[in-house]
Amino acid sequence: MEAYLLDWANLLMRWLHVIVGIAWIGASFYFVMLDNSIRPSKKDEDKKRGVHGELWAVHGGGFYHSQKFLTGPKDEPLSKNLHWSYWEAYSTWLSGMGMMLIIYWIGAKSYLIDNSVMELTSTQAISISIGFIALSWIVYDQLCRYLEGRDKLLAGLVFVLIIAIDYALFQIFSARAAYLHVGAIMGTMMVANVAMRIIPGQRRMVAQIRAGEPVDGRPGIIGKQRSVHNTYFTLPVLFIMISTHYPMTFSHEKGWLVLAVIMLAGVFIRQFFVLKHQGKKVWLYPVFGVALLVALIIAMAPNTYKSPMPEKVDPNAPVISAVSDADVLAIVQTRCAMCHAANPNYPGFYAPPKGIILETPEQLEQHAALVASTIASKYMPLANLSKMTDEERAKIAFWAAEQ
């Protein structure tokens, strides 16, 4: 019953995470578009009111007129009907951390820890997880403070910081958990930017405007900087959110580098849209981003498997010249069927993962390609809890190649 309820908690939290994530990223994309699309007003009265720029838009049968004031309107009260954008960010982070709790902290032994990477207790692994998330924000925030006004250097160092975190996590956790922690860390940076820098600064500016005091524009400059960072984080974070369905990426022997390349491609593609809003169509950015992805796909492409043993298997091991269906079924029933069964007997599973049952030759043949790819990537068995050997993986790969 506990596993059943945890599955429902996972499903509902994931659903919530997607809903509020769409709201947050949608709002972020909209305001980036708005900020980069505004043009100077042609009316002198607007300039006297402090209008920095404006945008006319049409959508859903209506016409909209947006105006931007850097430090609020001049010689007129600030409307009490002031919309704040922050609940989307907070809800996305809270639901994401809820999933972290349900999947990676409660299920630390299955999903967070990989003893072939580093032997940890659940308490140690969870403590490291929390520590990485919190410390990464502190380091990032201090970089932003120290390099205020030096945006290009800061952007480069932030990227280096994230890649260093990416590499370090792959030396500690399971590959899947490492990916998700990079996403959680970037998401934490994004929400902390909103909660600790953007919104407090805007509240100070609003208070000054309403009190009739001179407005300090520095909080707005800082908020803009952090908002720009957030928009470049979005595509990498979105990729990480869906990456758990594609072990070919995170289970690669250089999974940290795969993620680095994909994140960089996302940044280049996002840059194109940012510039496009400014009326600059610099096609080099998306072309380079797509080229990075194509090069990665080619570099990661598996060789057609015909050799009797995969790479990195003990060269002194006996050569495999033939593998029967019965041999493979025996391996799968020993190493996989405790979870992939009509009635799993492994603790924490009440239903077969993804509905895949591997108890009969027909079921194994039906899922042959998927079984071979996930086992070859070492994503399965989870954290190799059933201790599948390299020779057994080689037999399954050889058998699948002969199908």
Helix content: 55-70%
Strand content: under 5%
How many domains make up the coordinates?
Answer: 2
List the uncertain runs. Answer: 304-313
- The shape, in one word, is elongated
Count of helical stretches: 15
Distance between the termini: 39 Å
- Overall SS class: mainly alpha
Tally the beta strands. 2
Mean pLDDT equals 85
- Lateral arrangement of strands in the main beta sheet: 1-2
**Which value, in Å, is the CA radius of gyration?**
26 Å
GO molecular function: electron transfer activity; heme binding; metal ion binding
Domain Cytochrome c: 320-403
Protein name: Cytochrome c domain-containing protein
Transmembrane segments: 12-33, 89-108, 120-140, 152-173, 179-199, 232-250, 256-275, 282-301
Concise description?
The protein is mainly alpha-helical and 403 residues long. It contains 15 helices and 2 strands.
Overview of the molecule:
- The structure is a single chain.
- By secondary structure, the chain is mainly alpha-helical.
- The protein has two domains: 2-37 and 77-300, no CATH class; 325-401, no CATH class.
- Helix content is 63%, strand content 4%.
- The protein has a two-stranded antiparallel sheet with strand order 1-2.
- α1 (2-37) packs parallel to α10 and α10 (255-277) runs antiparallel to α11.
- The longest helix is centred in the N-terminal third of the chain and has 36 residues, at 2-37.
- It is elongated.
- Mean pLDDT is 85; it is low at 304-313.
Features:
single chain; 403 residues; mainly alpha; 2 domains; two-stranded antiparallel sheet; 15 helices; membrane; heme; Urate_ox_N
